[in-house]
Amino acid sequence: MPTLQWLDDEQAxxxxxxxxxxMLQPDDALSCGDSAAGNMLIQGDNLDALKSLMPYFxxxxxxxxxxxxxxxxxxxxxxxxxxxxxxxxxxxxxRLELLRDLLAEDGSIWVTIDDNEAHYLKVIMDEVFGRKNxxxxxxxxxxxxxxxxxxxxxxxxxHVLCYAKNLEDFPEMWLPPDPDAVKKYYKYSDEKLGQRGxxxxxxxxxxxMDERPNLRYPIPHPDGSVIWPEKQxxxxxxxxxxxxxxxxxxxxxxxxxxxxxYKQYLRDEDGDERRRKPASIIGGHYTQHGxxxxxxxxxxxxxxxxxxxxxxxxxxxxxxxxxxxxxxxxFMGSGTTAxxxxxxxxxxxxxxxxxHAVTHCAPRLRKVVEGEQGGISEAVGWKGxxxxxxxxxxxxxxxxxxxxxxxxxxRALAAHVWFAETGTPDCCDGKSPLLGVHNGxxxxxxxxxxxxxxxxxxGNVLNSAxxxxxxxxxxxxxxxxxxxxxxxxxxxxxxxxxxxxxxxxRVR
Length: 508
Hints:
Blueprint: H1 9-13, H2 15-18, E1 22-33, E2 40-43, H3 46-57, E3 61-66, H4 85-102, E4 103-113, H5 118-129, E5 134-141, E6 157-164, H6 179-185, H7 193-196, E7 199-203, E8 205-206, E9 219-220, E10 226-227, E11 232-233, H8 237-245, E12 249-254, E13 257-265, E14 281-282, H9 287-302, H10 310-320, E15 326-329, H11 336-343, E16 347-352, H12 356-370, H13 377-380, E17 387-396, H14 410-422, E18 434-438, E19 441-445, E20 461-462, H15 464-468, E21 477-481, E22 483-484, H16 488-493, E23 496-500
Parallel strand pairs: 2-16, 2-17, 3-4, 3-15, 5-14, 15-16, 19-21, 20-22, 21-23
Antiparallel strand pairs: 1-17, 4-6, 5-6, 7-13, 8-11, 9-10, 12-13, 18-19
Helix pairs in contact: 3-4, 4-5, 10-11, 11-12
């Protein structure tokens, strides 16, 4: 597959392996509501933050939505959006790699961008996510019109590049019916209005060239005559007879011809509304809407520059997630993605390096928890609730020499060891030396007095006494510790592979 080349591109492709794992330090003063809700607002460089999330969330994120700086040469108050082309590509590449690894196998990533970098971004996303996993380039109509001062043309659109983590596992996407289309087309009602809503008429005959004799039969008219299709009907005879019995077939006299239609109700027999597929052109949600929403939240002087409207994010999350799914935005901006995800009952992680993580994101999400009624709130019936924890990036798990930072807790190191060994996110509770069992092998960590004795020889060294106190497992075991007093024969007999901390722990 062709790949894109730019200045220092090889270094950009090796960046992720050099990024340290850092601690996430909660700040209760900026947190709000239910701390157990699982929502995280992280202030710090998003490359470091994404790497720090890997031991806990690799393969668990259902949807990534990011609105990175567009590299337009403009100067925005909250972003440096005038990054040289090669630098921009080097900024994006390693972040896309980490986002890919955080995505679930049935997850998707959506990236907004304009024409300045869209086609270069498409090539590097082909490389990172695989060209076969490209879903489409959604074209977002960002503006009503205008542009009288434009020299050549009026720019009304931006791009939303969408990739699946694994297209074979990616589910179908659906949206609820368009309210405007419902008003326009679903104009009729009958005795089923309460249960199935209004209906529209759809032709029962088909012009398909696929000849199927079983679909060519007469339909009885109420006047006793029969009606034949010019070619064939869409439905089987049994289905039509059931529809006739249920008053769901309509005959219309058009002069010398009688047409046969069926009632297409807004809701099916179970009461579920008829859904629609997302269109590749997204309209009805404009930049102006996002600006008005930002003004309502922060006032005219503190409004955010060109925020995405809540309705745009709602449509994306509606089509790609369900309640309870985890949504991630690593270019959080003013917090729109997190606000929309919260109102829609999704869990979320937002990352923002700027001070507006404090001045815009945290206050906005506090208002969401308290039940603010802007944006999509009324449409989704949002009344408030939930909560989030605010985090800052703390110290690295390992220092420059690969030594374990003495301030690191057992829980943090255990998560790192488990992820380094299994490639799966954290599964231990931080209260046991047994981290878990993966593919038939048990993993243990002796560190920081986990066995209750903080003396080195009393808990961090593998010997007979310590081994007797470990949770038993009848199978191969990997045990991390500061030292091992057993010889090779004993290790083999007990099916133990001993690894010494910190030297045998993969630092990155």
